[in-house]
Amino acid sequence: MLVKRAMSKNVVSVSVPGNREKVLDLMRKEDKAVLPVVKGDTKQLVGLITRSDLIVNPDEEQIAILMSTDLVTASPDDDVKDVAKKMIDNNVRRVPVVDDNGDLVGIITSFDLVSNALIKLESDDPVENFMITTVPTTWYKTPLNVAFETMKQFGLKSVLALNDSAKLVGILTETDFIEESEIISERSEHSSTVGTEGDKWSWDSTSVLYIEKNCLKFTDKLVEDVGTHKVEVVNSKTKASDCAKKMKTLNIEQIPVIGVEGELIGLVRASDLIKALVD
């Protein structure tokens, strides 16, 4: 299958120059986690900006500085298996599609590959061959700011919620955290006293340094107030192609994996399943 058969053609993009507020407004309006960046009023691709870029750089306002410019791109006539390998090798989930002139003509994601290509492959490989087993979990009554730090330490886009019996009861994604947060400015004061040693008549002078810094501020809600409570799961022996079909039907990019006794043993993401295309 060629990329042009699987990619999204109606691409929502943002242009430079521009600022953080412009990106956030567009992401929320269009329900997008990533936006290609084009130059001015043209279709010339110059970067890519994600929600993660906004989260990890709360002090920065300009799109040109926030965006990634070291891009992995694809051509409409590339084979989807080649794009899957590019995603795996570069640890990315989304690849802009450009024509011979470098103009943006589409975008293809790991979810596109799973829902359009993998479901037709009828792979017999079980999910356990592709899932990750080191997964961030948190208590369902954990404050959002603590749960966010847990997710961030793992470098993933989601955290799973467990109840008092250690049973899976919810899942929070990066999108959930964004919706329950805002960028605020905090000002701190740092002072130091300087005097002349040994001179009893000298006046001490105090210098004050004010530091203003932006940071991510979460609401006072708990994990149980925000996350998805009806969590869809697959078991470790579910076929990769069947898991792909479930992802497409439910329009989700990741599914927790349970063992024979219903215990949580891992997480499988669209970016993991595309390895079945390459294999």
From TrEMBL:
InterPro entries: CBS_dom, CBS_dom_sf, Diverse_CBS-Domain. SUPFAM superfamilies: CBS-domain pair (SSF54631). It comes from Methanobrevibacter smithii DSM 2374. It comes from the Archaea. This is CBS domain protein. It holds the Pfam family CBS. Keywords: CBS domain. Residues 7-65, 67-123, 131-189, 227-279 form the CBS domain. SMART domains: CBS.
